[in-house]
Design a protein that fits this description.
With 207 residues, the chain is of the alpha+beta class. It has one domain. 27% of the residues lie in helices and 34% in strands. The chain has 3 helices and 12 strands; from the N terminus they run H-H-E-E-E-E-E-E-E-E-E-E-H-E-E. The strands form 2 sheets. A 7-stranded antiparallel β-sheet has the order 10-9-8-7-6-5-11, covered by helices on one side. A 5-stranded antiparallel β-sheet has the order 4-3-2-1-12, covered by helices on one side. The protein is globular. The N and C termini lie far apart (55 Å).
């Protein structure tokens, strides 16, 4: 009887191990929940539409994309990277049975996701001698992100590589000019105690 119990334990362990090794190492536990599976199904439909929009019928042209939980709700969002000046990267969120375009960035990229606090930081977005650093905060009702603070950095006309310090820096909090100290205090609170995901660490796939 004891041998039979030991044998069953071995079989159970092998079965469990087999399941575990079939799950990719970069897949989190919540990635296989019913809610997340539904989100992936609907977001893939959006991915197909975005591929058509940005790539047309060009077979050889691909659209970089990734599924990542950037707002800390344990359900993945769809990130795309068309790479155009007016639309460099975008985020689509699936909530309450529908897909929404949660955020886009042009002439830049999503640099840091403060997932716990539902905040996105965009560093050095812009061109033609002016760069911006943005902080976006997610609206809990619409699931869309809105700019709540930013820095405007103006560079000398001959400094096309932005190699020197900006000649003028202006700080904004909700579209109102504030001091550097006020701005720093505000964005510090936005990021406080949040988990962080770096945009540079995201592994993109091609569709």
């Amino acid at each position: 009887m004891q041998k039979k119990i030991s044998y069953l334990r071995v079989i159970a362990f092998i079965a469990l191990f087999t399941v575990l090794i079939q799950v990719p190492c970069n897949t989190t536990v919540y990635a296989i929940t019913k809610e997340n599976r539904t989100a992936h199904i609907e977001l893939k439909k959006t991915l197909k539409k975005m591929k058509k929009q940005f790539c047309g019928d060009e077979i050889k042209v691909t659209l970089p994309y990734a599924f990542k939980d950037v707002d800390g709700d344990k359900i993945d969002e769809l990130l795309i990277m068309p790479g155009f000046g007016y639309y460099t990267e975008g985020i689509f969120d699936y909530k309450n049975g529908k897909v929404v375009e949660a955020a886009i960035v042009g002439q830049g990229e999503f640099s840091t996701f403060y997932t716990t606090n539902k905040v996105i930081y965009i560093h050095n977005s812009g061109h033609m001698g002016i760069l911006y650093d943005y902080y976006y905060k997610q609206n809990s009702k619409t699931n869309k992100y809105k700019c709540v603070a930013y820095v405007e950095k103006e560079y000398a006309q001959d400094d096309y590589e932005y190699a020197k310090a900006p000649v003028k820096v202006t700080y904004y909090k909700r579209d109102k000019v504030v001091t550097k100290a006020e701005y720093t205090k505000y964005v510090k609170a936005l990021k406080k105690d949040s988990k962080i995901m770096r945009g540079s660490k995201i592994k993109w796939s091609e569709y």
